[in-house]
Amino acid sequence: MVSLLGTMFVFLSSGLFGMWISLELGFFGFLPILNGKAASENEAAVKYFVIQSVGSGLILVSFLLFSSSSSFISYLSEETADIIMISGFMVKLGVFPFHFWFPSVMSMASWFSCFWLSVVQKVGPFWGISGLGVSCWLVDSFVIFLVTTSLVGALGGLAQVQFRPLLAYSSLGQTGWMGLIALLSVDLFFFYMILYTILLVGLLLTLHIINSYSVTNIPGWSFCNGLVFWVFCGGFFISLSGLPPLAGSALKLMGILVVISSYPVTLVFLILSSMISLYYYLSMFITSVSCLGSSNYGLNTSFLDSKGLMLLISSMMVLNWVGGFPLFIMCGSFIL
């Protein structure tokens, strides 16, 4: 897949221009994935193309400033080029204040596109940012924007009733954690992304199986109707917010152990954003337990008939529910 190859080439690039070419390869490779049969998916692809083109243009302009031959222009433009480059990466990632496009695009995308946008398309830019030798004040400014993005993601999710926009704001909430870990430890960033990928894939597969797109269309609490949603889907949702002892809490533990020594103040706001996310996920759970859920939903039986897929989802569910404590130990020993 072209988009995946572009992301892999980012790791192999030894220069800024090679990294930019790799990012563009990943960008253009993702467009056919995003551009589906539905008109809404086509609109999402157009929006994504426009926004990513702006981000790519900013990064390219910064390269031109870096390569300026005039010493006077070079002196003036080095700091400006750093600012423009960071801004370009922020546009591509959907970091505040350039986050507005992310929920709009994801709300019209397929489940697979939601996964690709939340995981694969973030790895390359974060890898690029982690290797930039920019000034300390610019890094600190970027950290502030990352933390603000997490808060925006948490607060934005409060008003959502559709699962796709809710996942978009959840992804924005995770962006702050991802970015800070990427700046401080690339190895732990990849460990974070692997675990986040497992949880997100399990969540998206379960949402596809229950064939539900709205919070108002979740099943009520009964063994027949609610078991699939709340043991599988609800568990993944709550886990991503970081509730112990679920596996997702290991993500937050990793972030806390990495960030606390360098940015202790920002950690308070990151934890606050996770608590807000946990609030509206638990609100869904309480609504369902109170038998206020809907019965107007249907399971996607074609996926239920696939033994391999159900085994995969069941394995992810077991990891989610019982894997928190082992992952706690693994994260703590790996970091300390």
TrEMBL record:
It holds the Pfam family Proton_antipo_M. The keyword Membrane applies. Residues 14-276 form the NADH:quinone oxidoreductase/Mrp antiporter transmembrane domain. It is found in: Mitochondrion inner membrane. InterPro entries: Complex_I_Subunit_2, NADH_UbQ_OxRdtase_chain2, ND/Mrp_TM. Its EC number is 7.1.1.2. Belongs to the complex I subunit 2 family. Core subunit of the mitochondrial membrane respiratory chain NADH dehydrogenase (Complex I) which catalyzes electron transfer from NADH through the respiratory chain, using ubiquinone as an electron acceptor. Essential for the catalytic activity and assembly of complex I. This is NADH-ubiquinone oxidoreductase chain 2.
